[in-house]
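Task 17 of the worksheet. Students: predict the tertiary structure of the chain below and write it out as structure tokens. Keep your answer in the requested format; marks are given for formatting as well as content.
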Amino acid sequence: MKRLARCFPLLLVGTLMLSGCTGGSPPEASPTIKIGVVTSLTGQAAAFGQAHKNGYTVALNDLNAKGGVLGKKIELVYYDDQSRPDQAVQGVNKLVDQDHVPIILGAYSSENTRAIVPAVDQKQVPLLMPTATADNVIQTGSPWAFRICAGSGAYAKTTVEFLKAMHAPKALAIIYENTNFGQANGQAMDKAAREAGFDVVDSEAYQASSPDYKSLLQRVKARNPAVIYFASYLLDASTLMRQAAQVGLNPQFYTSAGTGFAAAEFPTKDKGAGPYAEYTFSVSQWLPTAQWKGSKEFDEAFFKLTGSHPAYHAMEAYVTLLTAVAAINQASAAQPAAIRDALKNINLPDTPFGPIRFDLHGQNPHPVLITQVLDGKYKVVYPADAAEAKPVIPTPPWSKRQGL
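Model answer:
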């Protein structure tokens, strides 16, 4: 018994060493290389989270068919943040502590993405952001954060350039949801518009997912803006446009910070605004007709998977996974610090989303397009060298439109 008692501590130490202090298999023992994904598969941003998942799936199928990464298949480990910041933070903790992922992709919204930046800093794991446009997600000084998409400042700047090129009148109103995404885009447009000589005649914040915005729209109508700039997700974008028709709000330009106004579902009758989306302008970061090599092939693969054509949110997810895998290959190891260092030096000149590289702040300098919904389809109308259609301006008043 004494001999058994003396041996027990050694047996216990050996057991702990075999099991690992985190309670899971160490990353190097896994038959796959895991990559963590935080996105919104449920909640108000679920349509965009599903677009993420579809874009990731196209990339995953393609990459694994070509051999994966570092001689192993790639496995995506999803965490549904339920469109809530607190759940997004829990997702980071779970993916790092339990799933041992060396890199995280996400989240979808600026609200959720801003919440997880401190979490990845604390865990010391790189975060590759596909879609969050609020510029404060990349202004934290975090050495672990990198953003693929263009941000709110670029959105506002390009929209103002477009309005000036179209000789738009100077009275402008801003309508934005009262979240990190909406506030960042509203503030960016306010700054860019005033610097360009526009008169911001009204700025209205609203609570997301409200059923009735008619009072807000009536206040905006009373200020008689020639231009309206929205920062809204899909549900609100659809509601706002239908109710704009109801109150007879007729600016010369309906413009937007993308997102809901740029979603593939927005011009559709069943999931979006249908004919009420017609003539709206939106910033965009990619379309299937983009001239970057691989755009057409991604569109075809996405359609084969889903039966629908993608908007830029799916492409951003697609290229985010491609970039993560390129960094792992460049690092020659699925280790967080090595992947972070590889991302700092990554240079992918020829992706379907255009060139990918990151500046000292972790920002990819991606160009921004302006689209208009014409006959139910998004058409690039600016800049001129990328345009596939001429913009219809001014926007026809609701009373003169057919099919409403």
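Marker's comment: The radius of gyration is 23 Å. The longest strand covers residues 32-39.
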